[in-house]
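Lab meeting notes turned into a lecture example. A postdoc, R.K., suggested we walk through two folding results consecutively so the class can see how the record format repeats. The first protein's sequence and structure tokens come next.
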Amino acid sequence: MSRIGKKTIVIPAGVTVTVDKANVVKVKGPKGELTEKIDRDITVEVEGTELKVSRPTDQIRHKALHGLYRSILANLVKGVSEGFTKDLELVGVGYKATNQGNLLDLSLGYSHNIVVDVPKELKVATEMVKGKNPLIKLESHDKQLLGQVAAKIRSLRKPEPYKGKGVKYVGEVIRRKAGKAAGK
């Protein structure tokens, strides 16, 4: 058995999980509602306050999907009950971030500002404190969408290995390279 797949998912109070005939799981909670289409071979059962994922055989494909879908469902349950956050940090002289609603305006050292339209499912907040790097805080109940948007913002100016300038996640460690050796 898959070590991850055989763990049961505890459904917190205030969260409802329904599984229909087409193997579509709907999770509804205080933070929102999420749906996920599960492979027809994987069985999802709701037993009281627990969610169980099982597989029919020990084929390699079934083993792979077993742990995957258990993790996806655990993220759905956690998302609608607690939510997820990602923090991005802008490292560099003159780098700025401002937002008006879900419109994120970034100044990343290019000749023009970059405007990113963040999906309405995410909450965006920017923080600029004097003497510290600007921060972008993203918050959502959908972990997949949150990670995708954060990666898109990071890809606009990836951290470079010499000075570490660019957009990076808070807590991310950038591998630094030594510069050119000066003279003899």
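The second example is placed directly after the first for contrast:
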Amino acid sequence: MKTIRFGIIGTGSIAQRFVLGLAHVPQAEAAVVFNRTTSKATQFAAANQIPQVYATLDELLASDIDAVYIATPHPSHAALSIAALKAGKAVLCEKPAAVTLAELDEVIATAQAAQRLYMEAMKPAFFPLYQQIRERIAAGAIGDVKFIRAGFANPNVPAGHAVLDPAQAGGGLLDIGIYAAFLAVDWLGAASEVQTLGRIGATGVDTFASWQSQHQHGISQLYCGLDVAGSGEALISGTKGYVLLHDKWWNPARATLVTATGEREELAMPPVGSGLNYETAHFCELLRTGQQESPILPHAKTRAALQMTLHSRQAVLGT
């Protein structure tokens, strides 16, 4: 089995979690790393036994890696993805995949033209428990899914964090709200109508949003926030029962399945590793088998979740 060699772009906390997850992915390794500040890349490489540091992006993209993992601030995701795809590398990019639909459309078009694998790193879809729930629902455990409710809010964001910085496309919606949007789109399809209420914080980013949407197959009610505390549970409701994903649902470890007759079943599949290893393993398998798009997280699903999120963001910010 071919070893997939990753080049890591960015050296923040999410990149650290990615590297920790790689230890649980067979035949995959962090081969090179790049940060605009070379000293940060050097420290990151030393701490994680990564053999090569590059001082420029061009050097990394010209190296013999198979794929890049992009873990930089939101506004840089699209440009870095396009550069890597044009260089012939497969791309696993942190969410959000882009900060505008036009950017994402350009990324997808570039991936298709280059015939290279591109996938957003939307982790919940690949956790073992989430896959088990998908199998149970597909087998009719709760009937047809018609309603999704999900959200999370955390008021303990430190001052100076990127999520509070408008220049870095900060705000709750693009940072944590997009998880809820993914859940709604994953079960109900693209949104046809979105209604949003929210508020703006002192730094000019969205600090709370509540939105409900009409989808192809049902209705969703979602929220996210940076100025209040809120539980991280999610509800998948069907015509014959429901599944409650317990806090924190986007790292799914525990759930309760309840049928319309009141029968309850506790589901538990604690993740191993950092949790990012599941999406990475899927990505590596796609790359080895020559696929250019994930059947679990196709480009259309990434686009639908981003479109929904951006619609709510625009409604709150008035832009």
